[in-house]
Design goal:
Length: 52
């Protein structure tokens, strides 16, 4: 029991304190499309609808 807590606690602590990379879907789409354009890749995300 103590060994499990010793090894699992750091993992759980990091998972609960990690901040999201993007605050919302629009912010992600803008960043993704900008990066794709800079890398000259044939990808883009457009007309993406958020699932509920």
């Amino acid at each position: 029991m103590i060994a499990t807590a010793y090894f699992d606690f750091p993992i759980i602590a990091v998972m609960t304190t990690t901040l999201p990379l993007y605050n919302n879907q629009k912010e992600f789409l803008v960043a993704f499309n900008k990066e794709v354009k800079e890398l000259k890749l044939p990808y883009s995300l457009e007309n993406v609808k958020k699932r509920r």
